[in-house]
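Lab notes, practical 5.
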Amino acid sequence: MAGRASAQAALETRRSVLRAAAELASLEGLDSVTIGRLADRLGMSKAGVIGQFRSKEKLQLETVELVLEDFRTQVWLPVRHLDAGLPRLLAVCASWVRYAADPGYSGGCLLTQVTYDYDARTGSVHDRIAEGRARWRDTLRHDIDAAVLPSATDASRVVYGLESLAAGITPARLLHGDRHADGWALHGMRTLLGVPATD
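Output from the prediction step:
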């Protein structure tokens, strides 16, 4: 019984460290996530933090995994039960915009942040981000192909447009104070898909 409680406590500590890492990364970038800074934030010893992850790279990779899982949980899981095609694509756009506008991190959409941080680099962190985003693009293409869109529709162009609109929400809100950025993004997504605006 004590062993089970100890394992649960260790799991909760690990999760707390990752949440703190994600919050810090959203504000200052993934490179700001260090063992020392997290130890200070959480009131832990450096040994206690590094014992969870062994290295800074491992910590960064697990932070990226948390970000990808958050995205999947908030954007994809609520709509995946819908039939493939335009209805699910529109539902994805709505959940995506909600997530981008309020992802649960002070610095905005962390998936966008880490992508910009690592898009031109090499290494395991870059590769994991690229893999996660490629899977998301494939998911979008699947629904675009299943939707009844004009025959000349280029799925890759539509994916690019949807990504660009979602990525623009955080800087519009935080840098420029555009309180309606999420609504504008959703309007743009619907336009891109050839669906009349609802407002």
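Observations recorded by the TA: Residues 2-28 form the longest helix (27 residues). DSSP finds ten helices and no strands in the chain.
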